[in-house]
Design a protein that fits this description.
It is a single chain. This protein is an alpha+beta fold. The chain folds into two domains: about 50 residues, no CATH class; about 60 residues, no CATH class. Helix content is about 40%, strand content about 10%. The protein contains four helices and four strands, in the order E-E-E-E-H-H-H-H. The strands form two sheets. It has a two-stranded antiparallel ribbon with strand order 1-2. Strands 3-4 form a two-stranded antiparallel ribbon. Helix 1 runs antiparallel to helix 3. The radius of gyration is 20 Å and the shape is elongated. It starts with about 25 loop residues before the first strand and ends with a helix.
């Protein structure tokens, strides 16, 4: 384990944990505490929310839309084919990992608007 690269995140999943301010140290070296942490591509926030993950997936979805825009905006291509391109390229990029998200109605609304 690298002491210079190690960080820790304290997740507060209940309201009663607001006063926790413990410090973590390894052999006298203090480990920095962070508010969010990236683990296997997922951004974990200390309050258990996934707002940053939703923002990231929306950004990636728009990037894929831009890459496919040559097909999506071409008037010579059938609408049915454009729909298939959207379902194969854009939608999976937007919803990658969604089956494991603790999602709320506001998140669903933001994804629908996107």
């Amino acid at each position: 384990m690298s002491r210079s690269k190690t960080e820790y995140l304290h997740c507060r999943f209940s309201a009663g944990e607001d006063g926790v301010t413990g410090e973590v140290a390894i052999e006298g070296a203090s480990i920095p505490r962070v508010n969010r942490f990236r683990y296997l591509g997922l951004i974990i926030q200390e309050n258990g929310e996934i707002d940053e993950k939703i923002n990231q997936r929306i950004k990636i979805g728009w990037q894929q839309w831009k890459k496919a825009s040559g097909v999506l905006y071409d008037e010579k291509i059938l609408l049915k084919l454009k729909g298939r391109v959207y379902r194969i390229v854009v939608r999976p990029a937007l919803l990658y990992g969604a089956e494991s998200w603790p999602i709320k109605k506001s998140h669903i609304q933001r994804l629908r608007v996107t």
